[in-house]
């Protein structure tokens, strides 16, 4: 039996049985709430969105999207953290959208600093962050509002590399990604984003 | 055990190797190369309902573009093979994990394989590597008949006269004494449990040391007479003690307490849920751990303990 019915079944995603995820609002996160009141950080930058990636469920390979719908308070449609099927979904946190700097990936690719055996070239999306950006100082954006295209994001906390990612990739990325693993954000105002969208700071600290 | 990436692979070719065995060639829709693997490794196949089944890779480990698996249709089975045979036509998408190795080629001057039926799958990949390396090896392949022997043309092409076939329909039955003496050799057995038992018995009589025998059961140990007893599991990190009732697995009880172990087959075959233990008498019921590993590791899905165990968690 090789009819269309079974073909569709073969294409179906595993059933998501977990409830919608509980998110910690970015500026209520322990890190974001403190950083919100502390002035400083880069201003006046204009970066660009390079790639959008989502994974349909925990451990699934990331898939690149040409455009993505961001939903305020929830995440990117089609992503495991939007659906509550991510590895860390059972632990409430700020992870509606995660970003990583292309500059950090470039540094890994040139083995800089030389923290591991050699250069690590990560294929796009293998870092498992949703948005790869260039020209955006992510470590400065905890407690800040910024826009990616028409979507307004709030920096909640720095992303932290996990051993799980090392296991998935079979690459020693934990130490080299430390402190440049990107930013976990909440979505203040949703919309559609596309690679090429500009990324700019909206306001400084709430001080 | 480690987490592994799950990929949506495309079925490039699907052919019946025997009336009951579907031989699949899988490719990545975008990446030119799939994760590397060692002969003997297996992948998880994820079903639409979330269930997971393990299949050994039977293709060429030097070919990074494709994975090959062979799936025997088990009409009395749990449904996975029927689904695969019906759904995985060319062009279909199969959700497949990166490979994991529990069964590997060992350093030895001579390699002897005894495989039964669909147990040929890891042996084909291993024999291909040995042939490429110019190693000394023999494969004994047991099946009901030639038309029912999966991947036979492929195995013949790889092994040539190093293959001996034992088809019961022709009145040829494998005599386990044929494995010969142990010196400088490694023995690999994969197939149904009764074949493993027969070969292990003969190997013991012939003086083979346990560590020179690699076996992969194509189902976990079935001991109908086993009667599970309740026991307590203590977590070394917190000194918390969890009670495991007779009708529940250690894996389930750990999960209830928020300790999510990786897990996959939950039959004691794949080794995903293995964790360390430091104290206690463990009743090992898995088919994944070696005798040496059993000194300090436990497969939490099927194995239990007498009275109590301290887990390295």
UniProtKB/TrEMBL annotation, chain A:
Transmembrane segments: none annotated. InterPro entries: MoCF_Sase_C (IPR005302), MOSC_domain (IPR052716), Pyrv_Knase-like_insert_dom_sf (IPR011037). Residues 63-202 form the MOSC domain. It comes from the Bacteria. Residues 1-11 have a biased composition (Basic and acidic residues). Residues 1-21 are annotated as: Disordered. GO terms for molecular function: catalytic activity; molybdenum ion binding; pyridoxal phosphate binding. Pfam families: MOSC. PANTHER family: METAL-SULFUR CLUSTER BIOSYNTHESIS PROTEINS YUAD-RELATED, MOSC DOMAIN-CONTAINING PROTEIN. This is MOSC domain-containing protein. It comes from Hansschlegelia zhihuaiae.
UniProtKB/TrEMBL annotation, chain B:
Residues 1-106 form the FAD-binding FR-type domain. Residues 231-313 form the 2Fe-2S ferredoxin-type domain. The keyword Iron applies. Keywords: 2Fe-2S, Flavoprotein, Iron, Iron-sulfur, Metal-binding, Oxidoreductase. It comes from the Bacteria. InterPro entries: 2Fe-2S_ferredoxin-like_sf, 2Fe-2S_ferredoxin-type, 2Fe2S_fd_BS, Beta-grasp_dom_sf, FAD-bd_FR_type, FNR_nucleotide-bd, MRET, Riboflavin_synthase-like_b-brl. One of its GO terms (molecular function) is oxidoreductase activity. This is Oxidoreductase. It comes from Hansschlegelia zhihuaiae.
